[in-house]
Automatic annotation (TrEMBL):
One GO MF term attached to the UniProt entry: peptidyl-prolyl cis-trans isomerase activity
Entry-linked PROSITE patterns: CSA_PPIASE_2
Pfam families: CYP38_PsbQ-like, Pro_isomerase
Protein name: peptidylprolyl isomerase
Native source species: Volvox reticuliferus
SUPFAM superfamilies from the UniProt entry: Cyclophilin-like, Oxygen-evolving enhancer protein 3
Enzyme class: isomerase
Length: 425
């Protein structure tokens, strides 16, 4: 990201017309504009700023690139504000998705919390970690035993059978889990933990009754994902440390919190829009694709002949429904936390033009989360980009993706029935 940091010029918005040519506003490019001359002066100015200010400037610059403009426009960030960061922000994509479900059942949330705490316990070296793991398992078993009725009462009537099935699976998994711990098989603990938490997530999803809010009328005729959908993505990488490889990834779209964003992406997946498309940007910060061949910078709706746009959409923790058309920055709510944050490696969001909130169409990006510019729980991307899903399996290989690698396909493996106003293909 140092190349982006070097674009800061005298602390003011500065356009460097000769630095690079941007043929169209949203085209992905494999070139990064070179820093302007007089970099010594640039570095002097950056170095007198506080670390938070320097990070904010860098993120603002990176954000302009992620939005799809690829124009060397650098913005002076707002004055630094104190942000209360959670002491231990959730970074796991599956955990974020569990937390994002619109449910209120304390017993199952306690089971979830106990099982998720195992990840922290495993950081304890050697067999000493097995004591806390065992206690977490017993606590989960105790809650299931004593408060099963309270859990079952929360099931949506049409999902009760599915919920009960997953309770049985969870109870069996916990018994097997405890046996593994007693055998001191620490290597198997993360695998069994993941299995148990999968059943917890299924139980929690069985509690969702209907759809939690009404999409605004102006967007109600768009493709809408009224629930969740699971996708499989297959990418052929031409060059990795182990040679050419094919990678499979699982992506979960969250329509409960981003129905318009997730719905329009799922619509394109069902149209096979991304099949055969190349990765168009891979720079250690994001992996981006979705710019079609030809003059259009997005998906051209065959019904209208025009580029279909995606309205900006973000749901804030505590709000009953998403915000549309305005970023949290626009509304002065930058310190508030989105339900779907940029906390996880492989966060999926729409790319858009910098100054046009509703300009997304078909270009999307996965965030390579470990960048120092996006600290978990306090980054400046939250609320400025529309997140609508996460890679839940296979996200680690994102770092192997390069420009020109080909997406063989993206297909739906579950949840297609949750799409409303989908394509007739």
């Amino acid at each position: 990201m140092s190349a982006l940091m070097n674009l800061t010029s005298q602390g003011r918005a500065a356009r460097i017309g000769s630095a690079c040519v941007v043929p169209r506003t949203q085209r992905t490019t494999s070139y990064i504009c070179k820093a302007i001359n007089k970099t010594d002066n640039v570095h002097k100015e950056v170095n007198v700023r506080s670390p938070l200010e320097r990070a904010a400037i860098s993120i603002a610059t990176a954000a302009a690139v992620v939005m799809g403009t690829f124009s060397p426009l650098v913005l002076e960030p707002h004055a630094a504000q104190a942000i209360l960061v959670s002491s231990d922000p959730v970074k796991n994509a599956a955990a974020i998705l569990r937390n994002a479900l619109p449910i209120d059942n304390k017993p199952i949330r306690q089971v979830q919390k106990d099982l998720e705490s195992i990840s922290e316990a495993l950081r304890i070296p050697g067999s000493k970690s097995l004591g806390p793991v065992s206690r977490a398992i017993r606590a989960s078993q105790d809650v299931l035993s004593r408060q099963k009725d309270t859990i079952v009462k929360s099931f949506a009537p049409e999902k009760k059978e599915y919920g009960l099935e997953n309770i049985e699976k969870l109870q069996a998994a916990l018994n097997e889990f405890q046996a593994l711990v007693e055998a001191k098989d620490k290597q198997a603990v993360p695998i069994k933990q993941r299995e148990a938490l999968t059943y917890v997530g299924n139980i929690e999803e069985a509690m969702v009754k209907g759809f939690p809010f009404q999409v605004p009328p102006e967007y109600a005729d768009r493709p809408l994902l009224l629930g969740r959908a699971t996708l499989e993505m297959k990418v052929n990488c031409r060059q990795t440390p182990e040679g050419p490889q094919t990678f499979m990834q699982t992506v979960v779209l969250d329509g409960y919190n981003a129905p318009v964003s997730a719905g329009q992406f799922l619509d394109l997946v069902l149209r096979k829009f991304y099949d055969g498309m190349e990765i168009q940007r891979a720079d250690g910060f994001v992996v981006q694709f979705g710019d079609p061949e030809g003059p259009a910078d997005g998906f051209v709706d065959p019904k209208t002949g025009d580029i279909r746009r995606v309205p900006f959409e973000v749901k804030v923790v505590g709000d009953k429904e998403p915000i549309y058309d305005f970023t949290l920055e626009d509304l002065g709510r930058v310190n508030e936390q989105p339900v779907l944050p940029f906390n996880a490696y492989g966060t999926l969001a729409w790319a858009r033009n910098e100054f046009e909130n509703n300009s997304a169409s078909s270009q999307v990006f996965f965030l390579l989360k470990e960048s120092e510019l996006t600290p978990t729980g306090s980054n400046l991307l939250d609320g400025r980009f529309a997140v609508f899903g996460y890679i839940t399996q296979g996200q680690d290989v994102l770092s192997d993706f390069k420009v020109g690698d080909k997406i063989e396909y993206i297909k739906v493996i579950d949840g297609a029935g949750n799409l409303k106003n989908g394509p007739s293909v």
